[in-house]
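Record 1 of the preview.
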Amino acid sequence: GLRYTVLPNKIPKGKFEAHLEMHVGSVEEEEGEQGVAHIVEHVTFLGSKARSNLYAAGVDSNAYTDFHHTVYHLSSPTEIPEDVLKDVAQNFDHDSSILSQKYKLPNVRIPQVINMGEEMVPLALDALREIAFDAELDEKRIDKERRAILSEIGMMATLDYRMTAREIEELHKENILPKRLPLGDKDVVKNIPYSKIRSFYDHYYHPPRTSVFLVGDFDAERAERAIVRTFASIPSNRTEAKKQFEKIFGSLTDSLK
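->
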């Protein structure tokens, strides 16, 4: 199943890093799929509402794809920032819904928000779970990220990049790496069907291919409990679980359309 590492580190104070590594990269692409791993990275990461909602709390995030891995990482304060808490305190007698919308915090009662303390760790883990296992991959987002990646390909058309690609080709003549550069093939990125993008995600984004790393200023036992609570319910084989669901509920779902 999913593997995780928890490493408490008091420096820098009040900060932590949360990384989720999918053990899948461009080498898993089939012929005619060059760039699909990169597309999935973009769509899952930039399409995550849970991730974007953390910006107001001072969370930085990024992602990248290489030959063998796709990595998503968050850099976060351990506690909800003081300016947010001051705003909460000033509205102590009110319902939390307006503040939740303003700061994208969980919609809970105000006293709970004030005492959240280290609750940024589970919020970060929730974002990583959504990216890796609950992504929507809707067509509008896919098309938006196609354009972004095509722009990246255009910007990378430099002498340095061509020299690097040529070096990889010379060093790895005996394997597939030169034909699976993570950036992707322009024509494939532009034209690959939505179904193949979703199929790649469904096929490879599973707990056995996942490693989670938490490093920073937090209580290790609480952090470990948060990891287990966040990821324990995900089936080891999401594709098989999806097939079983459709087998049982498919006809009912079709009848309700």
